[in-house]
């Protein structure tokens, strides 16, 4: 199972290498391509015309490695599935040992860079530290004692995914961690060493979006069962907005000697603006507004937030004055109602899916 995006230069060589690594096996290679503009899907279809074991599933209007893997596994009738990248950085020679481990009874076989015999290749110190930090964080999600739960190179019984598919988030690139963090019977896991190779062709997909998707996955698998993941992220940004508001208010009302009412209005506007831009790059990184769309997005966000502020005050005052609710519970209730309103309305109008 090979998810692809802009890998036209690699798919042919990978298909050849897998043919050599799996000689004597009955297998198919399913490339799940997210409508790559470089013609990856067409290249795979051309390979399939010459070799019926090679298939292409092209997705239009959908993006993401995890969902590509899920859809690919759901599209095969094979009992065992190996998941690997198309960029030739995963060692295809490990495919046969992975299959052997599954046939010996393992449910999941993980290619590890961090056990004896494995390695990270030419990674610099910064990338290695980031990877190890992500590995430690992943242990919050029932990743067990695996040395490399962030690996993108693994094999499993297809039924393992199918038993859990309804509860997978499908978020980001770390589908293995998503599987491990999803409930179900305890899995028999084996790790096999491999050395991560440098990319031969094309561009790396590792960027800030990958980090944000990982954070979203962490939230989804911890708090997401209780409240929507995006709402948690939105609320975190809201907390930052309170800090910004108070800092601006203190500056204007204090050293700059601006009248309180005017200072409050200006601080509110600055905090709304800060929240809009931080939400745009953090909470809604997958729907990020750019260019001319920023202005109407900011206006709709400020309008929604203004109504949310009125709802906040109205609920709090009503609870305190009419129902004699203690002041801090009244305030908290107002904040929750205002935040829920802001989240719902801006998700619907500012950052439409």
TrEMBL record:
Record-annotated Glycosyltransferase 2-like domain positions: 2-163
Parts of the chain that traverse the membrane: 231-253, 265-285, 297-320, 326-351
Residues in GtrA/DPMS transmembrane domain copies: 234-351
Localization annotation: Membrane
MF (Gene Ontology): dolichyl-phosphate beta-D-mannosyltransferase activity
Listed Gene3D superfamilies: Spore Coat Polysaccharide Biosynthesis Protein SpsA, Chain A
GO cellular component term of the entry, any: membrane
Protein's membrane topology: Multi-pass membrane protein
Xref: InterPro entries: DPM1-like, Glyco_trans_2-like, GtrA_DPMS_TM, Nucleotide-diphossugar_trans
Protein name from the UniProt record: Dolichol-phosphate mannosyltransferase-like protein
Organism (species): Candidatus Rhodobacter oscarellae
Domain of life: Bacteria
Record-stated family: Belongs to the glycosyltransferase 2 family.
């Amino acid at each position: 199972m090979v998810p692809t995006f802009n890998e036209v230069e690699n798919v042919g060589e990978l298909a050849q290498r897998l043919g050599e690594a799996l000689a004597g096996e009955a297998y198919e290679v399913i490339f799940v391509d997210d409508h790559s503009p470089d013609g990856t899907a067409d290249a795979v279809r051309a390979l399939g015309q010459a070799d019926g074991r090679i298939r292409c599933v092209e997705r239009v209007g959908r993006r993401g490695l995890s969902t590509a893997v899920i859809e690919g596994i759901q599209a095969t009738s094979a009992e065992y599935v190996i998941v690997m990248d198309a960029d030739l950085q995963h060692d295809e020679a490990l495919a046969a040992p992975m299959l052997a481990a599954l046939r010996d009874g393992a449910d999941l076989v993980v290619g590890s860079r961090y056990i004896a015999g494995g390695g990270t290749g030419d990674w610099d110190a910064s990338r290695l530290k980031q990877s190890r930090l992500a590995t430690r964080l992943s242990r919050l999600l029932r990743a067990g004692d695996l040395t490399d739960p962030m690996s993108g190179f693994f094999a499993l019984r297809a039924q393992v995914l199918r038993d859990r598919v309804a509860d997978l988030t499908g978020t980001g690139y770390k589908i293995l961690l998503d599987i491990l963090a999803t409930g179900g019977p305890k899995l028999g896991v084996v790790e096999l060493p491999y050395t991560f190779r440098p990319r031969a062709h094309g561009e790396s997909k590792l960027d800030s979006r990958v980090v944000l998707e990982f954070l979203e996955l962490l939230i989804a698998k911890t708090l997401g069962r209780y409240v929507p993941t995006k709402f948690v992220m939105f609320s975190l940004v809201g907390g930052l907005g309170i800090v910004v508001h108070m800092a601006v208010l203190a500056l204007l009302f204090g050293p700059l000697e601006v009248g309180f009412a005017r200072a409050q209005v200006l601080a509110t506007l600055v905090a709304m603006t800060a929240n809009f831009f931080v939400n745009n790059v953090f909470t809604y990184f997958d729907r990020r507004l750019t260019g001319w769309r920023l202005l109407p997005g900011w206006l709709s966000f400020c309008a929604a937030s203004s109504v949310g502020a009125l709802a906040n005050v109205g609920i709090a005052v009503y609870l305190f004055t009419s129902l004699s609710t203690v002041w801090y519970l009244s305030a908290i209730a107002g904040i929750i109602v205002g935040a829920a309103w802001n989240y719902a309305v801006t998700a619907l109008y500012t950052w439409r899916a």
